[in-house]
Amino acid sequence: AGWKLLDAATGTSAGENAPTLLNLDGNAEDVIFQGGAYYGIYVEATNGINGDFRYTNGVETYEDSFVRIESGCGVTFGGFGSSVFNDRIWNGILYYDGALGAHYLSTTMAGGVSTFNGNMFDLEVYEDITLSAFDVNVEVTGADGALVTRVGDPCTHQNMSAPIRRGGVLL
Questions:
Q1: Which residues pair with 106 in a beta bridge?
Q2: What DSSP assignment string belongs to 58-123?
Q3: pTM for the whole thing?
Q4: d(CA 121, CA 149)
């Protein structure tokens, strides 16, 4: 399946190595990420500055009872079709709503010594969720971003099945 823009997001930088909240503009709240499925997530800086979001080198997995984030790859300025660098940990926090209300899952904000324009990672969903916001570790004062999603593994392009629904309608 191809990539689909889930939502745009804006925020004000909290400074380097500090979580900068990017609130989704509203379209994402109708998209249900179904439990038992895998999704590719791509977080991209959209303010036109090369190397805006920070990352940490390595491979890590972060999980709670609702979701699991597996580190992926960094993407250079230009988005899709640009250079991809494997083994990059997205420096961020994913906020979502699940069965028991609001939740979040954090990766790391420490050790982010390099920057990228985008980061791809895998999201395994254990129970149905909707995304509401995300934090990033930013290099500069701008903090505009976009959240793009697709069915499947974003870095190795393995095929995994997972329907994405908006308002109950299959996309």
A1: 93
A2: S--EEE-SSEEEEEEEEE-TTSTTS-EEEEEEE-EEEEEEETTEEEEEE---TT--EEESEEEEEE
A3: 0.80
A4: 10
